[in-house]
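Collaborator request, handled under Task 6.
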Amino acid sequence: MFLHRYLARYTSILVITALTSSTAFAGVMINKTRIIYSENDKSATSTLSNVSKDNYAVQVWVNGASDRSDEKVPFIATPALFRLAPSEDQIVKIIKLPDNGLPKDRESVFYFNAQEIPSLNKGQSDNKLTIAIRSRIKLFYRPAGLVGTPEDAVKKISWQRINQGGKSWLRATNNTPWHISFSEVSVISAGNKLVVKDPAMLAPFSHSDYLLSGNAAVQQGKVSFSTINDYGGIQQQPDSLVN
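Structure tokens returned to the collaborator:
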């Protein structure tokens, strides 16, 4: 790995900090918050831009939700390693490998990673703190012929009140082949607003239980929620009943 060679060459302290692409500290920015790869596309692309005044070496790769470096995934990112000068852009291509075994009846999700490492200039102190920042965004693979659309999937979520361990939970069920990403989720019941903190993405053909803030028992009420679309935009959805 490039990072190991970098450590061997310089004696400066290296701090690895995992941050999302929205962070204001990143010198290299990804031009989108998610990548959509349709089955009929030969590849998907993303543009990385150096928005700082420093030179960077950038390493990119695709992995799974486990974030393991040794995990085998059916995608490669190229070029895998490149240099970015100030105000310079680099288009990265993501290519699907043949015989990948990806499901045909639902979306699959992976993660595109971009790690930036500032270059040490000649004469710069070897004792300078150097921070390598990693940005990570979702990569959705969409087989051809899936029923409906992501917008349809949002309308078909069913919501149910669950009591477990003396706490109130909200169960969301998704019977569609699409992933659903939430921005905000809350329940209005008997004058109380119960909020879901950092609601996780809802996978295809599955359900997720979300812990509600507060101790009020949810009987009947309304779910207020917003979702994130293919372009990273937040869309407020119509309120739904919770059973």
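The cover message to the collaborator said: "The helical segments are 2-9, 150-155. Confidence is low (pLDDT under 50) at residues 1-24. Please let us know whether this matches your experimental observations."
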